[in-house]
């Protein structure tokens, strides 16, 4: 099936943002944004879990319980992500790379399932990664699944309200085209946050 004309630029934007984030985390080089390659080392577990200040939300072992200000750890497996039931705290707690990457990967995986999958996955089903290697692989797997969901959409699907039934957002009340746009901005802005946190970690350790 050919990609609808309205979807093509959004798909290209997603591909660029996804690849740039993956390269920024895994290295050994990344696109600076103008086609120039920049050397970048692979992210470490220390960076992944680094808490720049007190009160950060992160990814933690279920056996250790939630972090400051959180009331539960969401996710399957040994690890979960700090959160609270709505309404969430204001101002929002500062979140680690681990928290942000887990959020992104879960969002992509669940939205893919609720677009062209079984329409059944929830946050309690998603396995949260406790180390960076597993987390980056999980992000790539989720991004592949979301891309496959995009490729399954025709013009009718793009104009359908509730084509994606993702239960943790307004997707059931939104045109699918608007959901696609929203997912792109999530990858773009959280990807930029992760890149900045890598830079701050490097500077805080006396790096050049």
Low-pLDDT stretches: none
Label the CATH architecture of the domain at 8-28 and 43-53 and 97-204: Up-down Bundle
Radius of gyration: 17 Å
Percentage of residues in strands? 5-15%
Describe the sheet with the most strands. 3 strands, antiparallel
Overall form: globular
> Reading side by side through the largest sheet, how are the strands ordered?
3-5-4
**CATH topology of the domain at 8-28 and 43-53 and 97-204, what is it called?**
Four Helix Bundle (Hemerythrin (Met), subunit A)
Describe this structure in words.
The protein contains 6 helices and 5 strands; from the N terminus they run αββαβββαααα. By secondary structure, it is mainly alpha-helical. It has a domain at 8-28 and 43-53 and 97-204: Four Helix Bundle (Hemerythrin (Met), subunit A) (Up-down Bundle). A 3-stranded antiparallel sheet has the order 3-5-4. A two-stranded antiparallel ribbon has the order 1-2. Helix 1 packs antiparallel against helix 4, helix 1 (8-26) packs parallel to helix 6 and helix 3 (97-116) runs antiparallel to helix 6.
What are the main properties of this structure?
single chain; 208 residues; mainly alpha; Four Helix Bundle (Hemerythrin (Met), subunit A); three-stranded antiparallel beta sheet; two-stranded antiparallel ribbon; 6 helices; globular
């Amino acid at each position: 099936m050919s990609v609808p004309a309205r979807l093509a630029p959004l798909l290209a934007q997603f591909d660029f943002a996804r690849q740039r984030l993956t390269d920024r985390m895994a290295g050994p080089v990344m696109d600076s944004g103008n086609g120039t390659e920049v050397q970048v080392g692979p992210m470490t577990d220390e960076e992944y879990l680094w808490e720049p200040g007190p009160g950060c939300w992160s990814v933690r072992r279920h056996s250790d319980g939630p972090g400051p200000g959180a009331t539960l750890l969401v996710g399957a497996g040994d690890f979960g992500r700090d959160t609270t039931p709505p309404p969430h705290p204001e101002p929002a707690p500062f979140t680690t790379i681990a928290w942000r990457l887990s959020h992104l990967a879960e969002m992509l995986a669940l939205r893919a399932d609720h677009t062209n999958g079984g329409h059944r996955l929830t946050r309690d089903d998603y396995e949260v990664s406790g180390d960076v290697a597993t987390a980056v692989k999980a992000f790539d797997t989720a991004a592949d699944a979301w891309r496959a969901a995009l490729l399954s959409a025709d013009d009718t699907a793009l104009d359908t309200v509730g084509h994606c039934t993702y239960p943790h957002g307004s997707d059931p009340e939104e045109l699918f085209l608007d959901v696609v746009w929203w997912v792109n901005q999530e990858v773009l802005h959280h990807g930029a946050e992760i890149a900045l946190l890598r830079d701050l970690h490097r500077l805080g350790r006396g790096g050049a």
